[in-house]
From TrEMBL:
Belongs to the TRAFAC class translation factor GTPase superfamily. Classic translation factor GTPase family. PrfC subfamily. GTP binds at residues 13-20, 80-84, 134-137. This is Peptide chain release factor 3. Keywords: Cytoplasm, GTP-binding, Nucleotide-binding, Protein biosynthesis. Residues 4-272 form the Tr-type G domain. InterPro entries: EF-G-like_DII, EFG_III/V, G_TR_CS, P-loop_NTPase, PrfC, RF3_C, RF3_dom_3_sf, RF3_GTP-bd. Increases the formation of ribosomal termination complexes and stimulates activities of RF-1 and RF-2. It binds guanine nucleotides and has strong preference for UGA stop codons. It may interact directly with the ribosome. The stimulation of RF-1 and RF-2 is significantly reduced by GTP and GDP, but not by GMP. It holds the Pfam family EF-G_D2. It comes from Halobacteriovorax vibrionivorans. CDD domains: RF3. Transmembrane segments: none annotated. It is found in: Cytoplasm. Its main location: cytoplasm. The keyword Nucleotide-binding applies.
Length: 530
């Protein structure tokens, strides 16, 4: 994989749209997993990649991981994202580490809530998107309806690359709009060499026979509409994130999957420039880091605990952004200025991970972390910089932490601090009080933290309700105003783990009043404001 251009991408979807199935099939086509079904099976035979207890119990994927495989002269890195909405923060952060995204849609349902939210994050970053309308072996919405839905809900221009002929029991296959061929669904026994039918003349007898009169009529009408209404695929617009090529198929039946993989290997962008803040950070000066720069840089976008139950380890995932990282290299953790030697950098191949000798831009390496690393941490060869755009999102649910065993206060503090730094939950301290508040986007995050406090820190974390519904990071222009603001709203002031001031509120109305009263104070929903 040394010289291959990287394609680092992720799949986004609503739970049940088929992300796991697609991941499994992509790996299969990438020939890493020889027999599909190894990654995850709903029958309860969990493969070793499904390592978390909670995942087993609930049948949901909770944490992200990386799967790498070579395909068509590209080194593909597929980053897994949790499907459950309670862990969407993990997904948002994973999206900061990729250059492109595959959007999976359940064709009977259209764009669902979770996909919509994740697409908003992609659109914010202009991430190029490939779309796949899945489950055409079941009754599906009309493809025009699906396109309309994607265009309206995701504000992106769709360009069909294939076109479905029928759906459900009537599903014949897809018409390839560029090659004017039909790929037959029924004969898709060998997905590596599917039965391709010449369809340059739709009036030909073999087409009539294969498609059937009613569906052929509809296909002809549809193709006319497409020609009239739809633009051609334009690579630049795809790369700018404003146009999405669209495929139709059935991941479960390996149908249409290879075409998606081919598209990624052909068009997915390689690593690009990324913005960093330069030291001293207060000055807010930035520069762009180019992947071709000689010196290594990278940032932590994900910290995963318990990847291997036996070792109780914690792995920080680093996205390499420039230069070349070599095993054993000493790198600088820009936040502390300290050098650390990375002796055992890990790379991931489906279920396996192995020590790698090097990594280049676009690659993801995992390093063992004893609790010192934080989400967003930047690694360099000495330069003090900070990658931007790896935000925390304002939590919407809050709980007060109760210390049940006063002897274990220190352990609890340490556990909460570390779990918060690795992004499992957000920890806030209230103004003029020792009270600790946890904030999360979804309730399951609290459960995970409770369990991990017990497992890893040997302390029982208990919570009680905290009747606040929102929080904003605030930027106050002067010290004087800061004093006024804090004394006026002392009950609403909290500090995040970096000591930044936050305004915590019970109702949107409270927020609005504060905003009106202090017009010059800025309120932010994410913590990456400048
Ligand atoms: P995830 O929650 O998005 O990861 O979805 P899964 O991949 O686990 O799929 C959810 C369900 O849909 C599973 O029962 C799959 O077998 C099923 N599924 C996935 N793809 C297809 C498909 O193309 N056709 C049909 N009929 N079912 C599918």
């Amino acid at each position: 994989m040394e010289d291959l251009k990287r394609a680092t991408f992720a799949i986004i979807s609503h739970p049940d749209a088929g992300k796991t199935t697609m991941t499994e099939k992509l790996l299969w086509f990438g020939q890493v997993v020889r027999s599909a079904g190894m990654v995850k099976s709903k029958q309860g035979n969990y493969a070793k990649s499904d390592w978390m207890e909670m995942e087993k119990e609930r049948g949901i994927s909770i944490t992200s991981s990386v799967m790498s495989f070579p395909y068509n002269e590209r080194a593909m890195h597929l980053l897994d994202t949790p499907g459950h909405k309670d862990f969407s923060e993990d997904t948002y952060r994973t999206l900061t580490a990729v250059e492109s995204v595959l959007m999976m849609i359940d064709s009977a349902k259209g764009v669902e809530a979770q996909t919509k939210k994740l697409m908003e994050v992609c659109r914010m970053r202009d991430t190029p998107i490939v779309s796949f309308c899945n489950k055409f072996d079941r009754d599906a919405l009309d493809p025009f309806e699906l396109i309309d839905d994607v265009e309206k809900t995701c504000s992106i221009q769709c360009v069909p690359m294939t076109w479905p002929i029928g759906s459900g029991v009537e599903f014949k296959g897809v018409y390839d709009l560029r090659n004017k061929t039909i790929m037959s669904f029924k004969d898709a026994k060998d997905p590596f060499s599917p039965n391709i039918i010449d369809a340059s003349d739709l009036k030909a007898d073999h087409i009539k026979e294969f498609v059937g009169e009613t569906l052929l009529e509809k296909l002809e009408e549809d193709l006319m509409m497409i020609e009239e209404l739809m633009p051609e695929f334009n690579e630049e617009e795809f790369l700018a994130g404003i146009m999405t090529p669209m495929y139709f198929g059935s991941a479960l039946n390996n149908f249409g999957v290879k075409e998606v993989l081919d598209t990624f290997s052909k068009f997915a962008p390689g690593p690009g420039e990324r913005e960093v803040l330069k030291a001293p950070f207060e000055k807010e000066e930035t520069r762009m880091v180019d992947p071709s720069e000689k010196k290594f840089t990278g940032f932590v976008f994900k910290i995963q605990a318990n990847m291997d139950k036996k070792h109780r380890d914690r792995v920080a995932f680093i996205r390499v952004c420039s230069g070349r990282f070599t095993r054993g290299q000493k790198v600088t953790l820009a936040r502390t200025g300290k050098e650390i030697k990375i002796a055992t950098p890990l790379m991931f191949q489906a279920q396996d991970r192995e020590i790698t000798e090097y990594a280049i831009p676009g690659d993801i390496i995992g390093i063992h972390d004893s609790g010192k690393l934080q989400i967003g941490d930047t690694f360099t060869e000495g330069e003090i910089i900070q990658f931007t755009g790896i935000p925390s999102f304002a939590p919407e649910i809050f709980k007060r932490v109760l210390l049940k065993d006063p002897m274990k206060g220190k352990q609890l503090d340490k556990g909460l601090q570390q779990l918060s730094e690795e992004g499992s939950v957000q920890l806030f301290k209230r103004h003029n009080s020792t009270e600790k508040i946890l904030g999360a986007v979804g309730v399951l995050q609290f459960e995970v933290v409770q369990r991990r406090l017990e497992d890893e820190y040997n302390v029982k974390g208990e919570y009680e309700g905290f009747p606040y519904t929102g929080i904003r990071w605030v930027k106050i222009p002067t010290e004087k105003m800061k004093d006024e603001f804090v004394s006026r709203y002392s009950a609403n002031i909290a500090y995040d783990i970096k000591g930044r001031i936050c305004f915590i509120y019970r109702t949107e109305w409270d927020l609005k009043l504060a905003q009106e009263k202090f017009e010059e104070v800025e309120f932010f929903k994410t913590n990456d404001f400048k």
